């Protein structure tokens, strides 16, 4: 069977949840036994999200093959049992870069390089390469209908529909139905205009999904159908829900996957949502209630830690625990101290870059270590744990990372190329080097230490987790830290890089250089987060009993 394509676009406003809608539909099709893949096409000029501010773009999701991608790919992997990669997310910047490289090589034989056909052909080529081998490819177009940046992408998918045939392609448009409280009405005009915008460039949606706070009355549904030229049974609503994991069943109950299967003539089995029903059942029946502090510097925009928040939720689902995440700004802790964490069952310090707020994170580690509060450090959260231990336990005053203090007397964390050799010489990274794509990225194997908590948690000799960092614990200073009681519980396969540390005489103090949140899912969870949540529950119960 040739690959069928479902193109998902958005209109009226941004942040409607195209990624969740796309992932939910993919979940329904996967449950029917179809081989599904997903792509995200982003119209911005950045080559990838790797150097974009979390305040503007949210989290950078890292795939197993080391691609720095849009956070929607995180939703895709959490909803659908698939492992995505570099081919599943590309930007206008990457497209233009490839076209310009071809022009410089003379591949176009002197032709005038234009948006049509050269840019659109590149988009089509990349999309089809990412979809190769799948029964169904869901292709989400970033941005909003009417954005000037999206036009080449919309033109490309219009051409793909023409070339592949309407029987092999389907257009789904996600819109907003605003509710005017004063009038007590849902307004359909923005949806009508959004579809008109698409039709003006040659795209007629087959299906509409209308985001709304209120159910869509039949007469309003008929009105939308009339003015958008979409059959009324293909106009669906997506109501606000308390968890995104309820969206697949909500769309299934309206028959979304059934109409998609019919329109694309897909031969598949009936929908089976038993696994997802189990997830919701456990989510709705917690037996414990805990408070976890997440201490970082991007707390005004929690989308910067989307996968991490979801991983804690997954751990709660799989341990039947209600996990309440409380976000604390590390800069505030720098100013006022860590006493604000006194009501927390456990503490987590996530990854990050730059020295802003780092002393607040170190103070947080001290608070967790001295008060026997379960602590999980991830990426920078491990590095500040090592810095804190070096300063306050291993008597290495002034210990720091070279990222924050290039002249620190004890560089317990640094760029690999900045590590001091035994003769005292250093190799320094070129200051003119590009930042983008220069980190240690993607899935890396890690050997766990025997008789460690990490080994107990994973119950494996070797694990694979995803990385995104430039700095590592300085292996030359590890002996001093180990002599002071810090345990190295995970190393890279060649033994040169520290991947996990823990404090044996602490109830639960584990930190890792990698990002375990990128491989957590609601159905399967993740052993590290589940162990952390269990430790938090035990700490919470201990406080209650005392």
Automatic annotation (TrEMBL):
ATP binds at residues 15-20, 72, 241. Mg(2+) binds at residues 72, 140. UTP binds at residues 14, 187-192, 223. CTP binds at residues 14, 147-149, 187-192, 223. It comes from the Bacteria. The active site is at 379 (nucleophile), 515, 517. One of its GO terms (biological process) is 'de novo' CTP biosynthetic process. Allosterically activated by GTP, when glutamine is the substrate; GTP has no effect on the reaction when ammonia is the substrate. The allosteric effector GTP functions by stabilizing the protein conformation that binds the tetrahedral intermediate(s) formed during glutamine hydrolysis. Inhibited by the product CTP, via allosteric rather than competitive inhibition. L-glutamine binds at residues 352, 380-383, 403, 470. It catalyses: UTP + NH4(+) + ATP = CTP + ADP + phosphate + 2 H(+); UTP + L-glutamine + ATP + H2O = CTP + L-glutamate + ADP + phosphate + 2 H(+); L-glutamine + H2O = L-glutamate + NH4(+). Residues 1-266 are annotated as: Amidoligase domain. Residues 4-266 form the CTP synthase N-terminal domain. Residues 302-534 form the Glutamine amidotransferase domain. It is an enzyme of class 6 (ligase). Keywords: ATP-binding, Glutamine amidotransferase, Ligase, Magnesium, Metal-binding, Nucleotide-binding, Pyrimidine biosynthesis. GO terms for cellular component: cytoophidium; cytosol. Homotetramer. PANTHER family: CTP SYNTHASE, CTP SYNTHASE-RELATED. Belongs to the CTP synthase family. Catalyzes the ATP-dependent amination of UTP to CTP with either L-glutamine or ammonia as the source of nitrogen. Regulates intracellular CTP levels through interactions with the four ribonucleotide triphosphates. This is CTP synthase.
